[in-house]
Design a protein that fits this description.
GO terms for molecular function: ATP binding; histidine-tRNA ligase activity. With 462 residues, the protein is α+β, with helices and mostly antiparallel strands. The chain has helices at 20-39, 53-56, 82-85, 100-109, 156-172, 184-193, 198-209, 211-225, 230-240, 246-259, 264-282, 332-335, 348-357, 381-393, 407-416, 427-432, 453-461; strands at 43-44, 50-52, 69-70, 93-95, 118-122, 125-127, 139-148, 177-183, 290-292, 303-312, 322-327, 341-347, 371-373, 398-400, 421-424, 434-439, 445-449. The longest helix has 20 residues, at 20-39.
Amino acid sequence: MAKGDRINFSTPSGFPEFLPSEKRLEVYLLDIIRRVFESYGFTPIETPAVERLEVLQAKGNQGDNIIYGIDPILPPNRQAERDKAGETGSEARALKFDQTVPLAAYIARHLNELTFPFARYQMDVVFRGERAKDGRFRQFRQCDIDVVARSQLSLLYDAQMPAIITEIFEAINIGDFVIRINNRKILTGFFQSLGIAENQIKTCISIIDDLEKIGEAKVKQQLDKEGISPEQTQKIIEFINIKGSVDEVLDKLKHLSQNLPDAEQLSLGVNEIETVIAGVRNLGVPEKRFCIDLSIARGLNYYTGTVYETTLIGHEALGSICSGGRYEELVGMFIGEKMPGVGISIGLTRLISRLLKADILKTLPATPAQLVVVNLQEDLMPTYLQVSQQLRQAGINVVTNFEKRPLGKQFQAADKQGIRFCVIIGADEAAAQKSSLKDLQTGEQIEVALADLAAEVKRRLQ
């Protein structure tokens, strides 16, 4: 760079940067999500941001995601090391695009150190080379839970997922939502009963998964391009449009599984979803919070059983706010052993962006401080420091003003940050072991003994 050239310090496109009020909202939501995850016994882990590229791409796990590769950038005086620094083949590395594939590698690496079923949560940042646009980022935080077992995993773990989703979103208080549940075996089995070739089924499922994005007409066009006959396409459209209460849809599915040819896989999927629904009900999830939606498929090929998508009622254009499903081969492919798992993911950065724009969530005040000890006299700083510590020890978040400024400006600065209370102590108050407590919300100012100050502030905060 030539001397005098200006550096472009703006953030790269698609890489978000939160203001304090937005970051505090994220931390608040993370605390709620963490609390719910841990109430079900999930334990935290963190995997590296960088994985070997062959891990991320193993058996098509990459899907449609654009991966960011990692290449060393050498300083001018070390260019001779370029060949040594270059990485190819198994040493090529890239940024992780989700949490599930790295989880599989994590389990493979620590197989003999973990207890199974292994239930973990992870709230890390992931990276995808998507086209940056409103609500879509190249770097974003995902909050994931997964349970992985050796050989067999109870379907009741699948049933827990809607219960966890419900608790989180009810605690966040984002309004009405519904968890749409399906089973990929149902879709696979139905396609088999129609005589669709095995090598076409995954593609057909991916096409169905795009129904909400592209519409029914384009789904029909894409199925036609795949070689699906008009008669088969019409039956597929009728099938994914089966609606009704959970029990009505279950009855229709049972009837189909008993009357269609080659319906073994379909019957298995119906039995599984019936078990999951029974578990969801036994866990006390309200009926209004879940439904069976046969158009839900989840595009990633590693899903094999139960799948979920969560929709905010009245804001369907936001897309799924929490999704996931069951997989059978993802973990085992690294170690040659069957290790079924089930999990869900909340794309928290995307969710915050969407909910703020829709005015469903509000940012928090820029600071967690609840009170300012103002500075009237520099010689009273020992008193200000002692009072500040006493308030903190009582559980109150305090800012101490170390610089003396006009009192009105100190009030204005506190109010701008959303701090409600100011404590004012002059020479006379200090001598009498008293203070003035000003409520910036109401304008009220009262005299309070220093010994009673913490209790009075806590009472008013409640």
